[in-house]
Amino acid sequence: MHARCSVCGEPAVARVEYARKWLCGAHFAGYVEGKVLGALERYRLVERGWRVLAAVSGGADSAAMLGVLAKASVALGFRLAAVHVDLGIEGFSEASRRAVEELCGSLGVPFAVVSLPEVAGVGLPELARRARRPVCSVCGAVKRYLVNVAAAEAGADVVALGHHADDLLAYAVKNFLFQRLPELAKLGPKTESTGGLVGRVRPLYEVYKSEASLYARLSGLPFTEERCPYSPNRSVEGEVRAFLDSVEARRPGFKISLARGLARNAGLWGQGPRSPPRACRVCGAPSEGELCSFCRLTLKALGRPMGDVAREKVREAVSAIKW
Ligand code: SF4
Ligand code: ZN
Ligand code: ZN
């Protein structure tokens, strides 16, 4: 016999083990939306009237986030737009960008694309090669910088990130194992705006990766399944993720308890992201020294700090967003 939805008795499409429920497509979608709304309220992630800029990659996770936020924006009275950073990775970036365009088009969410090749004249792989740094570490720095500038230039109150519980927990446990404790302070559901740093929130804090993907699929949200060619095949995070999943299989709901514990205690591990004390001499972004990390990176890789050019290009790009 096929399983039936615990709510309406229609054929079920998903088992939510920790809630001991079978759910049909409609009730599964409602369940995920309820979890996100619950997190928005429990952690006070957004306020009525705010301008929320969602950073979207084109993958299923951020598609799910944008889909739920589009509904929540009506219920909770905030404004929503999206930004996508085109990294200039052959094949992958084109597919990601197309997915974002389709996604935002189908949801009616205004969006801007910030293109790294347009900003810096080279794509991510070439930038990393010239900087002699690992691609993923340059990627993280570039995305953080460009999304923050986009949020500041667009007048956003907060940036929403599509990190789900599996991402956050694997990263948190890895950092605990390596005793990089200050990193844990950055992993709460939100960080406040300070100085030139726009605050960040994680609406999918308690949503599992499998739930986000199924939600995106069931809701017919456009996303790409293309994998970044630089994503590592074997990583400590991957091993931690497999371990957390094996515990979850025996103790359903374990990952949610862990996420709630992290939300409660992240602040104990340090101060979290603070606005660095100075403004970059070239682009004005918050900076520890004379130059911000993006200007230092581009100076090393390209012979010239590009923050001022980047800010100009980002300003042009986000002028497409009409809140
Ligand atoms: Fe960036 Fe690709 Fe590395 Fe992810 S896997 S951080 S998208 S370079
Ligand atoms: Zn149902
Ligand atoms: Zn700078």
UniProtKB/TrEMBL annotation:
Annotated ATP binding sites: 55-57, 61, 85, 162, 167
GO BP: tRNA wobble position uridine thiolation
Keyword Transferase: yes
Keywords, alphabetical: ATP-binding, Metal-binding, Nucleotide-binding, Transferase, Zinc
SUPFAM superfamilies linked: Adenine nucleotide alpha hydrolases-like (SSF52402)
Domain of life the protein comes from: Archaea
GO cellular component: cytosolic tRNA wobble base thiouridylase complex
Database matches in InterPro entries: Rossmann-like_a/b/a_fold, TilS/TtcA_N, tRNA_thiolation_TtcA_Ctu1, TtuA-like_LIM_N
Residue ranges constituting the 2-thiouridine synthetase TtuA-like N-terminal LIM domain according to the UniProt record: 4-28
Domain tRNA(Ile)-lysidine/2-thiocytidine synthase N-terminal positions: 52-226
Residues forming coiled coils: none
UniProt: Zn(2+) 2 binding residues: 280, 283, 292, 295
Record bears the keyword Magnesium: no
Signal peptide as annotated in the record: none
Molecular functions per Gene Ontology: ATP binding; metal ion binding; transferase activity; tRNA binding
Positions that bind Zn(2+) 1: 5, 8, 24, 27
PANTHER family, sorted: ATPASES OF THE PP SUPERFAMILY-RELATED (PTHR11807), TRNA-5-METHYLURIDINE(54) 2-SULFURTRANSFERASE (PTHR11807:SF27)
Protein name: PP-loop domain protein
